[in-house]
Amino acid sequence: MNHTSHNVTIGDVAKAAGTSVSTVSRVLSGSTYPVSAAKRERVLHAANTLGYEPNLLGRMLKTNTNPSIGIIIPSFQNPFYTQLIIGIEKEAMANNYFPLVFSSQRSPETERNLINNLIKNRVKGLMISSIDDSPQAVDHFVSTGGKVCIFESNYSDTDKVINAKTDMLGAGRTAAEYLISQGHRSIAFLSTPFNRQSRIMTLDGYKLALANNGLSFSEDDVMTVQYESEADSGLYEMEAGHKLADKFLEAKKRKDYTAIMAVNDLIAYGIIQRLQEKGLGIPDDLSIISFDNIPYSGLINPPLTTMDMPARLLGQRACHLIIDSLNSNEDHNGITLSVSAELVVRRSVKAL
């Protein structure tokens, strides 16, 4: 009899493997009930040969859970988050979990509603880059038995969640030290609001590099835009970059800056575009370095020198911890998963 993946039953797998249905169920569900290595191998081989696919609805009814992982990011516009999602998806789908991906559109209210809907749909895994200063929605998810991983967040109860981040202190220091090594002594730091821990740590790294090289820090060298919301055009970071460039040009009338550190690549794109519109050459008139190394950063003019943030790797490793928590009920809460950034030198920085 020829089977397809649509009509193969657990009984078919048991018959092909020469085992009981209960043994097949234990192997395929990841149960901790002891099954010999030989039987386990026969079951897995039979399931693979027959193309068996588990009944996810049955799994939901039996366990009262949804075999999905909710993923909430601030915006689909920034390719950094796309890379993060790709890493999460790869790990989730390899382990028979299904990613449900949402954007909060930089709205705390939308973020809270999304979390509450995940709870209503019995989703027990949540991976989130939160823009909500209030921990109540995440606390509610945890209180239902959910497992949470938070990326680059200000969430204070770190013992309740898995924390995943890039070493932004090290990244900020490395970027600033590279500019200093190229002869730059007057460096402006341009950023969106400091309402995320990652931006604060990047600034701290910049300050540390200045101090380590005998250079003074001034608050006047730090320029920000005082809002963070999804632009109607969908190009929030680019528009923020334009505004930051305008602020920088005013500040440059008072101080002879030679370089800019931009808080991410999309911000840098907007800054470069506005400066070029004003007749300034990059890097001939001004050097610029940023963070993320999103896929387009080697394609713009000039190709952007930036810190490579391994978003895919971070997403994959963080998802592994969430899945391990869900499958084994092992408590990984309080763990901080950290990855390092690497400098990618292109042509947006000039040696003085």
Radius of gyration over all CA atoms, rounded: 24 Å
In whole angstroms, the N-to-C terminal distance is 76 Å
Overall CATH architecture of the largest domain: 3-Layer(aba) Sandwich
Can you tell me the CATH topology of the largest domain? Rossmann fold
CATH class of the largest domain: Alpha Beta
Main sheet: strands, sense, barrel: 6 strands, parallel
- Cα shape: elongated
GO molecular function: DNA-binding transcription factor activity; transcription cis-regulatory region binding
InterPro entries: HTH_LacI (IPR000843), Lambda_DNA-bd_dom_sf (IPR010982), Peripla_BP/Lac1_sug-bd_dom (IPR001761), Peripla_BP_I (IPR028082)
Domain HTH lacI-type: 8-63
Protein name: HTH lacI-type domain-containing protein
Summed up:
This protein is α/β, with parallel strands linked by helices.
Write the layout of secondary structure elements.
Blueprint: H1 10-17, H2 21-29, H3 37-50, H4 56-63, E1 66-73, H5 79-94, E2 98-103, H6 108-120, E3 123-128, H7 136-143, E4 147-151, E5 162-166, H8 168-181, E6 187-191, H9 197-212, E7 222-224, H10 236-252, E8 259-262, H11 265-277, E9 287-292, E10 305-308, H12 311-328, E11 336-339, E12 342-344
Parallel strand pairs: 1-2, 1-3, 3-4, 4-5, 5-11, 6-7, 6-8, 8-9, 9-10
Antiparallel strand pairs: 10-12
Helix pairs in contact: 1-2, 1-3, 2-3, 5-12, 6-7, 8-9, 10-11
Protein architecture, described:
- With 352 residues, the protein is an alpha/beta fold.
- The chain folds into 3 domains: 8-60, lambda repressor-like DNA-binding domains (434 Repressor (Amino-terminal Domain), Orthogonal Bundle), CATH 1.10.260.40; 65-164 and 309-339, Response regulator (Rossmann fold); 166-308, 3-Layer(aba) Sandwich (Rossmann fold).
- It contains 12 helices and 12 strands.
- The chain has helices at 10-17, 21-29, 37-50, 56-63, 79-94, 108-120, 136-143, 168-181, 197-212, 236-252, 265-277, 311-328, and strands at 66-73, 98-103, 123-128, 147-151, 162-166, 187-191, 222-224, 259-262, 287-292, 305-308, 336-339, 342-344.
- Strands 2-1-3-4-5-11 form a 6-stranded parallel sheet, sandwiched between helices.
- It is elongated and about 80 Å long.
